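Quick review question:
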């Protein structure tokens, strides 16, 4: 971990309004579709209508002969040109100990298609409409094969095989803990609780659909790719070295504004590779803009974890053992994170904020004829926290305990920190019981019964949900590089490899530099998304401020150090006698001084520059307590979240207003997961929810006022800022909190378990069944 001077200021606690918003809200954003046409050709992708089929033949001539069509490509063309596949992390083992094996992810399918929506051919034409029309003229003959879409069905003997080299459809597996000792604890336990739980498949719903432009510089031969990417550096490297098989310095990736990412925009997609390939092949500028259905059927999805979770408890509600068996669907092809999410990231936090002495986790990843699964806000942690939090509520109800009391009986105590959880992850800080007590007070816990009685008079069911969550952040990359420049024109410029996509990084980084250097906000520029200027791990896993912000603070300190050295030479005194303040270097006790920008004038290139690296000691562990109240109309099954309160520990918040906004957004997505959203395929693998006519996301009227309180009583100890990640917290605490609230409301009817999304139809039917059983 970097050690920073104790007097270095970095703007902590200042709720500065977003600097980005003036530009974005007045139509001056630089999104992909804002790029001028410049005579570019348009690409359109023809997708497979079948979930599983052999490609018998492809006749592209009718399309290629149409006026305005420049080229038509198939998978065979790309293989002939030695275009590579999109790589994945093949680092896991199958249950028998053999290496995992997966089908190669080609830009265009070759010989076999494995999900409905897989790209089969690409048309390049003078207009987008013409490319679409020409694609419809391509004649593809398929031999349809049996398909399997449900991961549990895929495990059954005789199920259709997605990839013959995986004869049981199992990609990989992991085990944690001691199964024998856990079973012994279950045999002796006073209470046992079991739930079958599903974190259903979700579609990330960013405002801006995926889009890509590529062009080749005629003089240098370098390829420039304009793309939405949370990880510009790895996008460049994968595209260059794995797909196009050319040196990575021959490719430049430029990312402008991104209209939302949520983890979905961390991969290189086939469309990105095809656009780049076509630009090189045709020596023309090529552009592609996906529509919403392209994202639904051809983008990565999130979640898709089916689990059985079990607690063994003593008579006082103390958990003696915790057992989870999970199956994670990967889809037909492996995104870079398809296996690491259920096999590693989920288990990292599966015990939550609790001291659970014995665990056994068994996780399998299973391939199906569906769109690939990848990162989506929280990536494994929402699924894992959902299991433990649903079990605590179920256990409290079975034993007859207050849901707060059972959690307090199992919390990790402050005296146990730093605490190593059962899968070896070290929590450096936290005050979990304190967070619960504070949230309960702010949520008016004691006033709940009165509100419940009032709802009952209106004929409504009323329930309360509680969740204590913890989040792992860092993206498994604990360093980040930046460069900082002071120019002769009086500006300070930061180049960073992290990537803004709505978090407000321009604002946060600017206020940190402004405070540290004493330079006005309007004199500072933050430049991201240019691999010629900065490469880093990017923005995933809530790491941008936690790791990237550390690098920013280090760079400000390095700039001051270098400026003091330069000033000591120019002012002919020792460096120890030079004091830096508000852009000036002064000889202590005198009026002799020189400005930072005057020093820059004397430097080569008329700028003073430092290259810096921020390093943290390990992940950060943001955590908190969410409490909500839900009302249900038993005649329609409609649920409505009417109160929502959070107390969140993000350590030291550099900009509390931005953190609060991040938590609001995460909770909104959590409400969507609990009540509304869910991908559905039919038995043949056709997606039934391929547009917002069929896939429901919450609207503004569905989101209650959310009261967010930030608690900084347990600052992070793994980075010099004391900050913890915050971007995914709301999406981790939200789903179990709302689900617990709905199940609490339904519990008076004897309903103990329903799987999300808790749609009106599902709740209404459960109520009717419960009434019929009672009658």
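Suggested answer, residue by residue:
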């Amino acid at each position: 971990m970097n050690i920073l001077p104790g007097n270095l200021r970095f703007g902590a606690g200042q709720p500065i309004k977003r600097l980005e918003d003036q530009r974005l809200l007045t139509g001056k954003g630089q999104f992909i579709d804002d790029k001028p046409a410049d005579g570019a050709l348009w690409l359109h992708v023809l997708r497979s209508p079948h979930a599983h089929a052999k490609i018998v033949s492809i006749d592209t001539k009718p399309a290629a002969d149409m006026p305005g069509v420049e080229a038509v490509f198939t998978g065979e063309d790309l293989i002939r040109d030695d275009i590579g596949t999109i790589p994945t992390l093949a680092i896991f083992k199958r249950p028998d100990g053999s290496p995992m094996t997966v089908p190669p992810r080609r830009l265009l399918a070759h010989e076999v298609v494995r999900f409905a929506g897989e790209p089969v051919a690409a048309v390049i034409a003078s207009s987008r409409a013409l490319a679409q029309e020409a694609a419809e003229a391509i004649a593809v003959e398929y031999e349809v094969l049996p398909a399997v879409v449900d991961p549990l069905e895929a495990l059954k003997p005789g199920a259709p095989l997605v990839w013959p080299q995986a004869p049981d459809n199992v990609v990989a597996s992991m085990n944690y803990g001691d199964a024998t000792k856990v079973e012994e604890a279950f045999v002796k336990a006073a209470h046992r609780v079991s739930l079958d739980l599903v974190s259903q498949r979700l579609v990330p719903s960013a405002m801006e659909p995926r889009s890509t432009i590529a062009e080749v510089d005629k003089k240098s031969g370098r390829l420039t790719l304009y793309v939405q990417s949370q990880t510009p550096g790895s996008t460049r490297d994968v595209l260059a070295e794995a797909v196009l098989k050319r040196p990575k310095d021959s490719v430049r990736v430029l990312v402008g504004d991104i209209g939302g990412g949520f983890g979905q925009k961390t991969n290189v997609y086939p469309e990105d590779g095809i656009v780049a390939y076509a630009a090189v092949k045709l020596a023309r500028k090529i552009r592609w803009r996906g529509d919403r259905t392209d994202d639904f059927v051809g983008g990565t999805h999130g979640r898709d974890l089916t689990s059985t979770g079990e607690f063994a408890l003593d008579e006082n509600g103390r958990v003696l053992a915790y057992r989870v068996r999970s199956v994670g669907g990967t889809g037909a092809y492996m995104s870079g994170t398809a296996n690491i999410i259920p096999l590693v990231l989920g288990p990292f936090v599966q015990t939550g904020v609790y001291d659970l002495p014995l665990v056994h986790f068994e996780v399998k990843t299973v391939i199906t004829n569906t769109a690939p699964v990848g990162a989506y806000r929280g990536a494994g942690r929402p699924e894992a926290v959902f299991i433990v939090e649903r079990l605590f509520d179920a256990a409290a109800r079975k034993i007859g305990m207050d849901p707060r009391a059972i959690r307090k009986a199992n919390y990790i105590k402050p005296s146990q920190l730093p605490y190593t959880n059962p899968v070896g992850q070290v929590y450096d800080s936290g005050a979990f019981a304190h967070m619960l007590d504070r949230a309960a007070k702010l949520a008016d816990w004691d006033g709940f019964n009165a509100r419940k009685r009032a709802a009952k008079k209106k004929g409504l069911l009323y329930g309360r949900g509680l969740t204590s969550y913890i989040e792992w952040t860092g993206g498994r990359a604990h360093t980040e590089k930046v460069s900082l420049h002071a120019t002769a024109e009086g500006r300070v410029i930061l180049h960073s490899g992290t990537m803004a996509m709505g978090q407000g990084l321009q604002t946060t980084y600017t206020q940190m530099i402004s405070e540290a250097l004493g330079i006005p906000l309007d004199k500072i520029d933050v430049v991201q998304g240019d691999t010629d200027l900065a490469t880093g791990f990017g923005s995933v896993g809530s790491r941008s401020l936690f790791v990237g912000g550390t690098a920013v603070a280090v760079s400000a300190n390095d700039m001051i150090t270098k400026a003091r050295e330069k000033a000591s030479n120019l002012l002919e005194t020792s460096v120890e006698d030079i004091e830096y303040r508000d852009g000036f270097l002064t000889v202590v006790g005198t009026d002799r001084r020189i400005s930072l920008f005057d020093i820059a004038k004397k430097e080569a290139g008329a700028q003073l520059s430092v290259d810096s690296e921020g390093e943290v000691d390990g992940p950060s562990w943001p955590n908190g307590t969410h409490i909500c109240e839900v009302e249900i109309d038993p005649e329609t099954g409609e649920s409505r979240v009417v109160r929502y309160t959070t107390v969140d520990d993000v350590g030291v918040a550099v900009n509390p207003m931005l953190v609060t906004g991040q938590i609001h957004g995460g909770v909104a997505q959590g409400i969507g997961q609990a009540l509304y959203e869910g991908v559905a395929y039919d038995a043949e693998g056709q997606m039934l929810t391929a547009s917002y006519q069929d896939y429901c996301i919450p609207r503004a009227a569905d989101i209650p006022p959310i009261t967010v309180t930030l608690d900084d009583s347990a600052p992070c100890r793994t980075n010099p800022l004391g900050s913890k990640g915050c971007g995914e917290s709301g999406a981790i605490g939200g789903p179990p909190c709302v689900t617990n609230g709905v199940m609490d409301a339904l519990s008076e009817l004897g309903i103990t378990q329903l799987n999300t999304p808790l749609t009106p139809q599902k709740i209404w039917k459960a109520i009717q069944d419960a009434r019929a059983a009672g009658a």
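Why it works: DSSP finds 20 helices and 28 strands in the chain. The chain has a mean pLDDT of 96.
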